[in-house]
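Researcher: I'm preparing a figure for a lab meeting and need a structural model of a single chain. I don't have an experimental structure, so a prediction will have to do for now. The sequence is pasted below. Please return the structure as tokens so I can convert it later.
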Amino acid sequence: MKIQLDYADTHPLWRISSWLFGVSLLLALVLGWKSLEMREQREALLQELTAQQAAAQPVEVQKIKPEALSAEQKMQIKQANMVLEQLGRPWPAMLGRLEQAMSIDVAILSIRPDAGKGRLRISGEAKDIPALLAYIKRLELIPEMTDVVLEEHELVEQPQSAGISRSVQFGISARWSQVS
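Model: Understood. Here is the structure written out token by token.
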């Protein structure tokens, strides 16, 4: 029997832990190097941003005198102001109010707004005259709507499989304004 008294022999766990320590050290070095690279890139980008901000000068707006404009330019400005006025109208509120005035007996076929004049034209079809008149009364109750006028109506008869279907086609105009 052979006795071994070598206490300096390395244990397998010691080899694994030293290998893990080496890998960790290598990983820490790579991360440190990448961190230094990113810090340098950040500083370069900050310097570039500072330079661009310093180079950007505020634009001076020159006021144009109305007498310096040509007739064509004045017309273009007037048209642009009309478009801005149309876009500034409360279209969602108007459509919501019209939807609240609806009933089962009335169908809206078209809505044609004229924002320049503040007018609204509604075309549709009602089950009968009383349903049409009730719809007009509901439109008159909308605070933003004034001068509600039935401009045209026509009784329409269409043959159906169960007989004849009667309805009233109509055209209504009204003035639409914002309530303060």
